[in-house]
Design goal:
The protein is an alpha+beta fold. It has three domains: 406 residues, no CATH class; 100 residues; 135 residues, Galactose-binding domain-like (Jelly Rolls). 52% of the residues lie in helices and 16% in strands. The protein contains 22 helices and 16 strands. The strands form three sheets. Strands 8, 9, 10, 11, 12, 13, 14, 15 and 16 form a nine-stranded antiparallel sheet that branches. A five-stranded mixed sheet has the order 4-3-5-7-6. A two-stranded antiparallel ribbon has the order 1-2. Strand 12 and strand 13 form a beta hairpin. Helix 5 runs parallel beside helix 16, helix 7 packs antiparallel against helix 8 and helix 13 crosses helix 15. The longest helix has 36 residues. Its main location: membrane. Keywords: Cell membrane, Glycosyltransferase, Membrane, Transferase, Transmembrane, Transmembrane helix. It is a multi-pass membrane protein.
Length: 675
């Protein structure tokens, strides 16, 4: 009878393995087809432009109005293979996706291998792999030039190395050295991998300190981690060229890390609990699973896994893997739910945490089934009861896994790029045929990186160029991609409203415009010149004011940056002076050599003053009007022209608009006549 039951169980396991293996293969085939036609994402194309530049021998970085060395997105372990793919096969949709495809195959292998190494049956390992691949966001962030899956591959490979095949084995110094190297590769792929690598190495350090030869083992782990990191930093130093540039690069990265990690935000007003609930609801919206179910999905495996990790009857290598997965996954979700800034609660930043949780769940399922909790002093019925309770607690966890699979697009909906994404190839082909001496523009952050990649043309930043410089260029074009069209129509209007242009190509996924003459700002409309719509002053601390040009959006309900050319339309009758409060930032007048910028304030027939801006900080300026009072209120145009701007920072996501000073308020006032 027992032999018959074992045979039936074996048959069921084989059938389940074939079924889940077929689903994994089906998903992989869908990804291969996807890779043949799909363009990379916006951020992914920025990564791939770095690979393309390196393949062409232009350096490690990408060009957008200037060459940005080592843009802090995804790094060497992804970029270098992508550069090799471009060097071998040229820049095509497939070569832009093939490295991601390779890492997906590697993820399948390492998840199955790691799960089997800790005693998970093959069929359950394949189920866990299928759950990973069907998780919402997996298609988007495993392909398209992203580095999230490469990070996970290196990290899980390190854990696999730490778990020897022998049941009682503990990692020796050789395994620790290799694991450290793999952790280093994960960190080099994306700095965000520190969320995984740092706690994993802390767990290992605590374990090593309880073992013989602990210093030798710690050194092996540290040397393994440091070897690729130091080699890459030497390469970075050589590429950037000078110690000053190298230090500046790292200073900017630390600022970005502090801001994006949440370390720079206190959120005291929001509250710890309310922030966690808010972020959990955001995750529920992104995954299609209710927030209470997600809470169970996260908490139950962590609690049960902790029980097995401290149970000495659990095999040593299983306890090690559980300890690492528990600590890393728990901290990952804690960071995303309670610490990460609200503006950065993206699915992309938690997708690795979800995949790690799937891996943890299959290990916990097996340990719960095979190893009842409780000492030998307990009765068999008590131990079976405890196991039944634990298995019952895991039921909603598995249900949540199935709900995530249903919400994903790999099993129920094969991956397919939308038609508007494919439009970018048409725009890129059109851009490629433009004259070689043509100057091609994006605007601000919206640099159309996919179109730049596939057209193999360098783009300039429209926001960096003054009207005089733009008008000096004879053959100039403006390009948008699907992200600009879908997210930032205002950026498109800002360019076109200042330009005389003709449309060469207009699709849902992008457009190409030929630009002619450029104005400093869009002209005022008749509504802007109607005194009934105007005010004699503006105060950004009280409210916004729409009758202005060349002044950026109001910030913090306090002030607004002024461009190098700006104008404001006010209402004037008998006022005889202008009072203006501005703030001159230190970055405007400080630099390698102290500058003396000048502000020219004019109004036709009434005002023409040149003001040196040599004093930092907030200051109030009074300027007399030279024209007679008007008997009836009329529109009064005030023009502001600065001869310089805040220096650009060599950081792709820095605020590099043509900015001069901050405007707090301005008002036309009546002052007593001078005797």
């Amino acid at each position: 009878m027992q032999a018959s039951n074992r045979a039936k169980a074996s048959t069921v396991a084989i059938v389940a393995s074939v079924l889940f293996g077929a689903l994994v293969a089906y998903t992989l085939i869908g990804l291969v087809r996807y890779s043949m036609v799909a363009p990379p994402s916006f951020d992914g194309a920025m990564n791939l432009n770095t690979a393309a530049s390196f393949a062409r021998g232009e350096g490690y970085g990408f060009f957008y109005d200037q060459f940005f060395t080592f843009p802090a997105q995804t790094d060497g372990p992804y970029i270098l293979p992508a550069a090799f793919a471009f060097w071998v096969g040229g820049i095509t949709p497939f070569t832009s996706q093939v490295v991601n495809l390779f890492y997906v195959v590697a993820l399948i292998c390492v998840v199955v291998a790691l799960a089997c190494r800790v005693g998970v049956p093959l069929w359950l390992s394949l189920f866990g792999t299928m759950a990973c691949m069907a998780t919402p966001g997996f298609i988007e962030y495993s392909m398209n030039g992203y580095g999230e899956i490469p990070v996970l591959v290196w990290f899980l490979a390190a854990i696999f190395v730490l778990a020897p095949g022998k049941v009682r084995g503990i990692p020796d110094h050789r395994r620790l050295s290799v694991a450290g190297l793999l952790f280093g590769m994960a960190y080099l792929t994306k700095v965000v991998a520190l969320v995984c690598v740092a706690p994993a190495m802390l767990v290992l350090a605590c374990l090593i300190l309880t073992q013989p030869h602990r210093w030798r083992r710690l050194i092996a782990l540290g040397v393994g981690f440091a070897a690729p990191v130091v080699a890459w930093e030497i390469f970075r130093f050589v590429e950037v060229g000078t110690a000053h540039t190298y230090a500046s690069w790292w200073r900017l990265q630390f600022q970005q890390i502090r801001m994006q990690s949440g370390a720079k935000h206190s959120d005291v007003v929001q509250g710890f609990r309310s922030k966690g609930l808010h972020h959990l609801s955001i995750l529920a919206d992104m995954t299609g699973v209710a927030a209470p179910m997600l809470a169970i999905f996260i908490i139950v495996p962590l609690v049960l896994g902790s029980i097995f990790a401290v149970d000495r009857r659990t095999s040593a290598h299983v306890r090690l893997v559980l300890a690492v997965l528990l600590f890393v996954t728990g901290l990952y979700f804690f960071w995303w739910i309670f610490i990460s800034p609200d503006a950065m609660t993206w699915l992309r930043r938690i997708v690795d945490g979800l995949l790690l949780l799937h891996c943890l769940i299959v290990v916990v399922l097996v340990q719960t089934w095979r190893r009842p909790v409780g000492g030998p002093d307990r009765s068999v019925s008590d131990r079976r009861g405890v196991r039944a309770v634990m298995l019952l607690a895991l039921v909603p966890v598995v249900i949540c896994q199935l709900l995530l699979i249903r919400s994903g697009e790999t099993v129920t909906r094969p991956p397919q790029p939308p038609s508007y994404a494919l439009d970018m190839f048409s725009v890129a082909n059109k851009v490629r045929t433009l004259p070689r001496d043509a100057t091609i523009f994006g605007t601000g952050w919206w640099q159309a990186p996919s179109i730049s990649l596939f057209s193999q043309r360098q783009f300039m930043n429209f926001e960096h160029w003054s009207p005089e410089r733009l008008n000096a260029v004879r053959d100039k074009y403006f390009v948008t991609d699907m992200y600009t069209e879908g997210i930032s129509q205002s950026s498109i209007h800002n360019v076109l409203d200042e330009s005389q242009y003709s449309t060469l190509l207009k699709l849902n996924g992008g457009a190409l415009y030929k630009l002619d003459s450029i104005q400093p700002y869009p002209p005022f409309t008749p509504q802007d010149s109607d005194p009934a719509n105007l005010s004699s002053g503006l105060d950004f601390a009280r409210e916004d004011y729409s009758h202005r040009r060349g002044i950026f959006q109001r910030e913090s309900d306090r002030d607004a940056w002024v461009g190098v050319d700006a104008a404001v339309m006010l209402k004037r009758s008998n006022e005889n002076a202008l009072r203006m409060t501005i703030e001159v930032p230190d970055e405007f007048i400080q630099g390698i050599a102290r500058k003396q910028p000048i502000l020219h304030v004019t109004s036709p027939g009434c005002l023409d003053q040149t003001l040196p801006l040599v004093k930092e900080g907030v200051q109030t300026i009074m300027l007399p009007l030279t024209c007679e009072s008007w008997p009836v209120a009329r529109a009064f145009q005030l023009n502001l022209a600065a001869n310089d701007h805040v220096p650009f920072k060599p950081q792709i996501d820095a605020d590099n608009r043509l900015r001069s000073f901050r405007l707090h308020s301005m008002e036309l006032i009546r002052t007593p006549a001078q005797p």
